[in-house]
Amino acid sequence: MDKKFTMKEYVVLASLLFGLFFGAGNLIFPALMGQMAGSHTAAATFGFIITGVGLPLLGIIAISLSRSEGLYDLGCKVSRPYSLFFTCLLYLTIGPFFALPRTATVPYSVGVVPAVGKDSPVVLGVFSLCFFAAVLFFALRPSNILTNVGKIINPLFLAFLAVLVVMCFVKPMGSVSSSAPTGEYVAHPFFRGFLEGYNTMDALASLAFGIIIINAVRNLGVKEPKNIAKSTALAGVGCAVLMAVIYLALVVAGAQSRGIFEVQPDGGTLLNKLASHYFGGVGGVFLALMITLACLKTAIGLVTACAETFGEMFPNKLSYKAWAVVFTLISFTFANFGLVKIIAYSVPVLMFLYPLTIVIILVSLIGGLFNYHSTVYRWSIGFTMVPALFDGIKSLPPATVSALHLEGFIKSVGGFLPLSDIGMDWVVPAVVGFVVGLVLYALKSDKGQAAA
């Protein structure tokens, strides 16, 4: 009989989940979203929490229910070539292409830019060089820094963040209701918030790191897949509630800041302004220090995870240390484009990856109905792939779209796909593909799980 967890064990699991998910992006995007959403904060926050909290939780449950041993194993339910492509792109996205460079540019924006008074490419280069040199040093040498920072720095940072948020509510800079929404938050705040949740990359991370929490549950004495999913879900609820509360507080703080500050270019700059407003220069310095150390821990973990994963997928190619050096160098290079550009060019990739991620999660959650047969997976993903690719192209920076003369293509395809105006044009094709897959599965004489 499987072991029943104590409350303390559930708290430990919830803490592990929170540590895996909560990073730099979880801070900067909700705060900036609040500034932009203004009086439409409630609808935007609801959409953000669905993709920023709900999907990551469902991703971990999907991994456990499908009895997959990780992202590659789950992707193989579509096919092995697709799984290799999907796994590589996902890890590169949450690793050296976007998330890892962001771990350097966020503390740079929060701490260094305000200290020197301007955004300097030279200063960014020096800071990111030192940052990634430290990352590589610890990634190549097992150390207690992950444990120490996780047990000391993260709690300190969260305590400071809690005090900052309380100050925002006790002495608000302005009224949320009086802040006019901007951009797409004027007409479609829920869907804009839904898409903004993509930027946390947590749903992608849930597929990449889901096996970690599942193994933790197994190591505590739970072996049955259903009980693993149940235990994971219960622990995840605690993590989800905490993350949702923090998101809501940051969004409200961001919206209130419109009473004093204009909409900032990025969330890192906004957080520094909030800290400096309430605590003076000391507050800004302390926030910068905490975020730098927290991002350092995250970066070390990401380099380690990416190097180990690529070492396993491509044996006899490069050693773990070689992969770690490669990923660190790529991250350093991309970091020097700056936070704003990293975010701008990460959006198209996320707009492509997220529909595929959402569909494979949702299909896996009900995969028991069709024995996780590859037919259903293939048709669902196949029909989702085309609009997902279109969403990626449509989300390219305007200058890139203009340079490639894609305006006519985007307009014509967007007029054909339903829900394209709100960025949800993948939904109808995904449903159609799923239904077609189910019908074809029902017509099969052999309804066993097909080989990938």
UniProtKB/TrEMBL annotation:
It is found in: Cell membrane. Keywords: Amino-acid transport, Cell membrane, Membrane, Transmembrane, Transmembrane helix, Transport. GO terms for biological process: isoleucine transport; L-leucine transport. Its main location: membrane. It is a multi-pass membrane protein. The keyword Cytoplasm does not apply. One of its GO terms (cellular component) is plasma membrane. Pfam families: Branch_AA_trans. GO terms for molecular function: L-isoleucine transmembrane transporter activity; L-leucine transmembrane transporter activity; L-valine transmembrane transporter activity. The keyword Membrane applies. The chain crosses the membrane at residues 40-61, 82-100, 120-140, 152-173, 203-221, 233-255, 275-296, 322-345, 351-372, 384-406, 426-443. Belongs to the branched chain amino acid transporter family. Component of the transport system for branched-chain amino acids. PANTHER family: BRANCHED-CHAIN AMINO ACID PERMEASE BRNQ (PTHR30588:SF0), BRANCHED-CHAIN AMINO ACID TRANSPORT SYSTEM 2 CARRIER PROTEIN (PTHR30588). This is Branched-chain amino acid transport system carrier protein. It comes from Mogibacterium diversum. The lineage of its organism: Bacteria, Bacillati, Bacillota, Clostridia, Peptostreptococcales.
